Amino acid sequence: MRKLWCFLSALVTGMPMLLHSQSAGNKTPNIILIMSDDMGYSDIRCFGGIIRTPNLDKIAANGIRYTQFYNTARSCPTRASLMTGLHPHQAGIGHMVDNPQEPEGYRGELNDNCVTIAEVLKTAGYKNYGVGKWHLTGKAKKGQDNSGYPLQRGFDEYYGIIGGAANFFDPHTLCRGNTFISPENDPEYRPEKFYLTDAIGDNSVKYIKNHKENKPFFMYVAFTAAHWPMQVPEKDVEPYYGQFDAGWDALRKEKYDDMVKSGLIKKEWKLSFDESVTPWEKEDHKEFEKRCMEVYAGMITNMDRNIGKIIQALQETGQLENTLIFFLQDNGGCAENLGREDGKVQRKIPENKMLAPMAPDELQTFMIPWRTRSGQPVFQGKDVMPGGPDTYASYGKGWAYCSNTPFREYKHWVHEGGIATPLIVQWPSGIKKTGEFRSVPGQLMDIMATCVDVANAKYPAEKNGKPIIPMQGKSLASSFGKDIKSDRYLFWEHESNKAVRKGKWKLVYKSTGKEKDRNLPTPYDSWELYDMEKDRTETNNIASVNPKMVKELADAWERIAWEVKVKPYP
């Protein structure tokens, strides 16, 4: 049964430890920060999921799991906050990089008043590797301006995509160092069959094995799985044939019951409900929907296999014992309705273009391509079964509803379904009590603080003569050995969706999109209030009976919003 996954994994498989080249406890650790994309809180097996993730399960069994850790509900802001240890608006990316606006918090580029984890760790003697999705600059669309690329923000080596999404078989903005490449002209990586998740895993392994210097390394591994499009080699889909035939309603209930039994969630927390989701029994396109989830699951299992390659490379090079590994996700399950039109729709061929195979040096210039590299047309719609390079669709709201079990809402929103992320931390020489949960609430900025702490690095007050905004997070190191309490303020804003949490109290506001002046305070009676100890699934709004707490938290949100550059709004 899934509730026994952790204990069986630890007892039966274990995780072999080789003799390590670094003396545990005497040298600063290597740090590997792994992030997945557009996944729900309970997708991976060790957080209550149905999808097979044996390598993440092993990492959790040999590490600890934080059950109340948070991202910022969307890709760009999450990455900005994670990389800089600041609120995303302080770093200059309060919204998206492809929508730059004034004022300061919304410029769509990392500003000169922040530093990345890589920039800080470099001063402590680390070599820094970046692999995967960057999505912290909009300049990839503007020719040769690479000032916002990883190598200009502290990384020594980089391989991945600069943009936010791409065809997995022929990625848009694929880049090595500062140079755009195609899957067919990369001088350093030429697999028989290219698939982006494999490429991220393989290049991560290469950097680990080639790291010969007598210094620790930091590696940021940002997988694009399981962001749309739903694409993966069929061999990864086959194990899931028929596994989701029961539909999202039944599987949500099954997952919820297992999460309660395992202790991930409290039985007092009711399973949330979204009346806007079509009941499975009334769904008209069941075969398409089942296929979407089968492919999505295959994408996550493929990613997990590549995480396993990284662990194996650490073992083979004798570095696992003193490597601190984080795994987390950038936002909740994605309910976006991309490529899910009725029927079968071919992508429009640009003017003066024709279907033909692409030359090895020809770059993919479309996030959603109109042809494959072999020259085949790309189709979308519910009459198209996703998975191959000639398809491009999201997995839809119903499955995002299931992915976010037991929570409310999705990517974009700051109810728990949009911001709650699994966080798994493993460090064999630094964390001795393993297989345990940590319930202390935390936020993305804490990763920077933790890296600075364990690396004995110094966070700068200024860089290149410009003041650096003070680090906003708190190191997690004090919770590695035991659970701790915290009642500090946690804060969120994205697209006028707002939340603040202090201790057990969370105040949240879902934007109507009709606010006349977003710089004015939100009326007190428009907020929702929840007791996270009794009702983390946010099913019982108690704002009306706790007006003093509403006022206290709403006033705090307003104060913080001005301090961290959420306001003034564009």
Give the arrangement of secondary structure elements.
Blueprint: H1 5-13, E1 30-36, H2 54-61, E2 64-70, H3 75-84, H4 88-91, H5 117-122, E3 127-133, E4 157-161, E5 174-176, E6 179-180, H6 196-210, E7 217-222, H7 234-237, H8 247-262, H9 286-316, E8 323-329, E9 345-346, E10 379-380, H10 397-403, H11 416-419, E11 420-426, E12 436-438, E13 442-443, H12 445-454, E14 462-463, E15 466-467, E16 489-494, E17 497-502, E18 505-509, E19 528-531, H13 547-563
Parallel strand pairs: 1-7, 1-8, 2-12, 2-13, 3-4, 3-7
Antiparallel strand pairs: 2-11, 4-5, 5-6, 8-11, 9-10, 14-15, 16-17, 17-18, 18-19
Helix pairs in contact: 1-2, 3-12, 6-9, 8-10
Task: Give a nutshell description of this structure.
The chain has 570 residues and is α/β, with parallel strands linked by helices.
General description of the model:
It is a single chain. By secondary structure, the protein is an alpha/beta fold. It has two domains: 2-15 and 29-479, Alkaline Phosphatase, subunit A, CATH 3.40.720.10; 489-563, Arylsulfatase, C-terminal domain (2-Layer Sandwich), CATH 3.30.1120. Helices cover 25% and strands 15% of the residues. The chain contains 13 helices and 19 strands. The strands form four sheets. Strands 1, 2, 3, 4, 5, 6, 7, 8, 11, 12 and 13 form an eleven-stranded mixed sheet that branches. A four-stranded antiparallel sheet has the order 16-17-18-19, covered by helices on one side. Strand 17 (497-502) and strand 18 (505-509) form a beta hairpin. Helix 1 packs across helix 2 (54-61). The longest helix is centred in the middle third of the chain and has 31 residues, at 286-316. The protein is globular and about 65 Å long. The relative contact order is 0.18.
